[in-house]
Amino acid sequence: MLLVLAQLPASSDPGWTQGVPVASAAVALLALLVALSNRNTSRRALALSMQQEERRAARLDVTLANSASWRRSGASRWVGFNILAVNPTDRDATIVGADLHIAYTLPSGQTMTVKVGHRITGEGFRAT
What we know:
There is one protein chain. By secondary structure, this protein is an alpha+beta fold. It is built from one helix and four strands; from the N terminus they run H-E-E-E-E. It has one helix spanning 15-56; strands at residues 61-71, 77-86, 99-105, 111-117.
């Protein structure tokens, strides 16, 4: 193994050796600013991507739009419901069946639940 050491000739202008560290620090600072900017941009892009994925997940929002209860003298009580089902996602969805579960308490204190199946019987309940 041969090791050769040679001393570089001394420069007549020592000013360039002082400017190199300053220029290097300026380039490093610029690289840091670009990296921080890219980080913020990538965070915003990730948040947008997550929102789009959330919109694509199948979901159905069901709300009670209106209800009414009436009773003729000496007759049973009738109850009408207007239920709204909305698909707020980007995917198509179809409701193929629905059951309404009604929970109520009897005067004796017993809790009852009635399951009412979905059936189309004409115009349905119209709110006025």
